[in-house]
Amino acid sequence: MVFPGSALFPANLSGQPIGPTGPSGLLASASDQRRARVTLLAGIDIGGTKTAYALAEDTGGAAAAAITARKRRPTEPSGDPEQDLRAMAEDVRQLLAESNASVGDLAVVGVSVAGPLDLDAGQVLRPPNLPHWDRAPVRDLLQAELGCPVHLDNDANAAALAEWHYGAGQGTEHMVYLTMSTGVGGGLVLGGRLHRGVACSAGEVGHIPIEWDGDLCHCGKRGCLEAYIGGAAWAERLERITPAASRVAELARTSGPARPEHVVQAAREGDAFALSEMERFNDYLARAIVHLAFTLAPECVVLGTIATAAGEALCLAPVREKVRARTWPAVGDNLRIEPSGLGDDLPYLAGLAVAHDTRRQDS
Fold first, then answer.
1. 3-class SS of residue 54
2. Answer CATH for 37-153 from 3.30.420.40, 3.40.50.880, 3.40.50.12780, 3.30.565.10
3. 150 phi and psi angles, rounded to 5 deg
4. Do residues 110 and 41 make contact, with C-beta atoms less than 8 angstroms apart?
5. Which residues lie across from 194 on neighbouring strands?
6. pLDDT tens digits, residue range 273-317?
7. pTM passes above 0.85
């Protein structure tokens, strides 16, 4: 007979046996034994054009771990989502092999992907940027391929978690993340947890109405924030109103239709039209932040993409001034408005943040 605390099953510092018997002295389950040996988290960020993969050491959710390996490749939907997902699982296996590891070293995989999602079923529901991915079984197929738990979330929530765990929102209990790329997405961390709301629909800040009966949004409603500061809507506006003699038009002539990045560059050069467009962008963004400040009273609002690219003088400082002018001191004076702190690492960290947050909640 082998007793707990013997040479075969040594005891821990409190006298409890470690190894297959577990602290209770009973035979440990397979999952308990597996948790004792896994060491890595994996993240997958599935975008419309690129898919990013990353590995990090598993800290059990106690601390943010640095990326230990990464890769990125074009997203090339085949028309068969299960085939696409198997190819992604193979990419993870290859990244593990390159790191002298295997799927047996994985604790959990986190997946960031554009919605809509059915989180209970672990499925993606017909995302606009992934043709034929209608009820794609992301969680179940990747779990079967990789042999470990898989958790997914929409890309805005995953980015919010990344900023909260690793970026500009570190150390806060209440944070809002906003991204202005093609549309306007958002994620809410409230009370130290991601807030999803009913039907996982919290954080849809891009569809806050800021002009009753205003411009038509791509969602079909009028006056949404996204219709004013989303990248696609702004590009459509620029195509209609950009003066031919402006610096914005000059920049566009060498690189396609006028886009928000042309406005940012021209505004830095002092172009009057571009400066007026930045003022309009800042005004609408500030309106949305004021709504969020009074409703949620976050410690920090983190701004990505267009706002980060525009920077302090063109965007962040004017937005802070506008928000403070429209909020009570107790609200506005305690609110930080910051640019994203993750830069080009965000796609790699988004999936990892989903995995990290899962481990944190389980620990």
1. strand
2. 3.30.420.40
3. -125, 130
4. yes
5. 189
6. 999 999 999 999 999 999 999 999 999 999 999 999 999 999 999
7. yes
